[in-house]
Amino acid sequence: MARYEGVSASVIRRLPRYYRFLGELKAKGMERISSREFADIIGLTASQIRQDLNCFGGFGQQGYGYNIESLCAEIGRILNVDALRPTILVGAGNLGLALVNHMRFEARGFRLIGIFDSDPEKIGHTIRDWQIQDVARLEAFCQEHHPLAAILCIPKQVAVECADLLVQNGVKGFWNFTHQDLSIIYKDGIAVENVHLGDSLMTLSFNIAEVMDAE
């Protein structure tokens, strides 16, 4: 049974935002905050925040609000940010390398253990602490090191083949940038987070039009 069965996906998607803002408040030395104050900072309603947190038991006290350090730790526990799941990245193109260079995987529950590509000109090069390996070694690497998550930055036409290989070798989840919607293929037993940057950009286009129409 899932740990938080029945909690909606929209609630889960707001938790990282809460965690990020709480971390920033903690870094500023703040110790407590009311749901109303937090709502003003984060751009939601106090009622929405309370409802979301109540899905996990609720963490505030009437008349006191939330202890920032404690709430940040609780949300981190819910999100499993201390899990440090072994993770590989497949596809060392511009996007893949940008993620390796700028993403703090360890702060978000993952530990990068390998980078793979099919381009002979990239194989053998070192990016930060990782040497790019030949994708032909992917299965052998999985059998030896047992990654649980994979970041896919590869062409759409090879996404399913690569994902199938990884699933067969124990990978349980994908951060998927391939434009192939893997959540349609892996409906049960595999976690998929599809990232469509183009969709986000088109959403921005719509919202700019809305702002301009309102002027």
Quick overview:
The chain has nine helices and nine strands. With 215 residues, the chain is α/β, with parallel strands linked by helices. It has two domains: 70 residues, Winged helix-like DNA-binding domain superfamily/Winged helix DNA-binding domain (Arc Repressor Mutant, subunit A, Orthogonal Bundle); 115 residues, NAD(P)-binding Rossmann-like Domain (Rossmann fold, 3-Layer(aba) Sandwich), CATH 3.40.50.720.
Structure write-up:
With 215 residues, the protein is of the alpha/beta class. It has nine helices and nine strands. The strands form two sheets. Strands 5-6-4-3-7-8-9 form a seven-stranded mixed sheet. Strands 1-2 form a two-stranded antiparallel sheet. Helix 8 (182-185) links the parallel strand 8 and strand 9 (191-194). The model has no long low-confidence stretch (mean pLDDT 93).
Secondary structure topology:
Layout: H1 9-27, E1 32-33, H2 35-42, H3 46-54, E2 66-67, H4 68-79, E3 85-90, H5 94-102, E4 110-117, E5 126-127, E6 130-134, H6 138-145, E7 149-152, H7 159-168, E8 173-176, H8 182-185, E9 191-194, H9 197-214
Parallel strand pairs: 3-4, 3-7, 4-6, 7-8, 8-9
Antiparallel strand pairs: 1-2, 5-6
